């Protein structure tokens, strides 16, 4: 499902200096697995998510996702790939506060030009799945942190993607809401989703729903 082969990612600081974010990473994640990437801030775990989502490209090496080599995809094709294959839950949710819940959720559908009936069917599915149908018309800025996260997860699932990526998903939540997110992970796993979570939250370590934990430090897998 996901393979990183000899992946190196460097960021240029200036003409004479670069930072190695990932150093010869080899990683395979199977379909339907829930995998936690453990590591402190700056360890490289978020960079892995970015590469898998085709939000950035490796300096060298190969990234293969759902049998597609995405390492050198042009930006327009990368956008299509993300829309069809990846659901991304960002740490700060990246919602538009002045739009309603339903408007935020359907944003990924805008480039596809679906008819109103298809959009409504997709929207109703995720509103029901994540228990936020009663909030559909409310502005996002008026929601609690946990409700905003459910909107972000619903948006990530609006196209029913094969893969869900979550970057520090509980960083802005209290312990009760964090446990609620873990329940959602279990529900998505039951649907057959492949889920990759980048986190340093101990809540995710040793969970039954998690198939593997992978420790990342200074751009390397330990």
Using the alpha-carbon principal axes, give the shape.
globular
The number of helical segments is 6
> Which stretches of 5+ consecutive residues score pLDDT under 50?
none
Gross CATH architecture: 3-Layer(aba) Sandwich
Largest sheet: 6 strands, mixed
Q: SSE string, helix = H, strand = E?
A: EEEHEEHEHHHEHEEE
Topology (SSEs and partners):
Blueprint lengths: L1 E13 L2 E13 L4 E5 L6 H8 L7 E6 L2 E2 L5 H11 E4 L11 H5 L10 H14 L15 H12 L6 E5 L7 H16 L3 E6 L12 E6 L2 E2 L1
Parallel strand pairs: 3-8, 3-9, 6-7, 7-8
Antiparallel strand pairs: 1-2, 1-4, 4-5, 9-10
Helix pairs in contact: 5-6
What is this structure, in a nutshell?
It contains 6 helices and 10 strands; from the N terminus they run E-E-E-H-E-E-H-E-H-H-H-E-H-E-E-E. The chain is of the alpha/beta class and 222 residues long.
Describe this structure in words.
The protein is α/β, with parallel strands linked by helices. It has a single domain, classed as P-loop containing nucleotide triphosphate hydrolases (Rossmann fold). Helix content is 30%, strand content 28%. The chain has 6 helices and 10 strands. It has a 6-stranded mixed beta sheet, sandwiched between helices. Strand 1 (2-14) and strand 2 form a beta hairpin. Helix 5 (145-156) packs parallel to helix 6. The longest helix has 16 residues, at 175-190. The mean pLDDT is 93.
């Amino acid at each position: 499902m996901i393979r990183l082969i000899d992946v190196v990612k460097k960021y240029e600081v200036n003409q004479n200096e670069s930072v190695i974010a990932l150093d010869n990473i080899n990683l395979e994640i199977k379909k339907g697995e829930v995998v936690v990437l453990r590591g402190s801030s700056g360890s490289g775990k978020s960079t892995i998510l970015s590469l898998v989502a085709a939000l950035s490209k490796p300096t060298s090496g190969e990234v293969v996702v759902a049998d597609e080599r995405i390492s050198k995809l042009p930006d327009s094709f990368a956008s299509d790939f993300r829309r069809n294959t990846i659901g991304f839950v960002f740490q700060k949710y990246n919602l538009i506060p002045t739009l309603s819940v339903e408007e935020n959720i359907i944003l990924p559908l805008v480039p596809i030009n679906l008819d109103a009936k298809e959009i409504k069917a997709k929207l109703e599915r995720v509103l029901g799945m994540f228990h936020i149908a009663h909030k559909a018309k409310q502005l996002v800025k008026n929601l609690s942190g946990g409700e905003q996260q459910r909107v972000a997860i619903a948006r990530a699932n609006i196209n029913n993607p094969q893969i869900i990526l979550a970057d520090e998903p509980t960083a802005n939540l209290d312990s009760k809401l964090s446990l609620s997110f873990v329940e959602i992970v279990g529900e998505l796993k039951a649907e057959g989703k492949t889920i990759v979570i980048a986190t340093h939250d101990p809540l995710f370590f040793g969970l039954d729903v998690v198939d593997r934990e992978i420790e990342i430090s200074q751009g390397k897998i330990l």
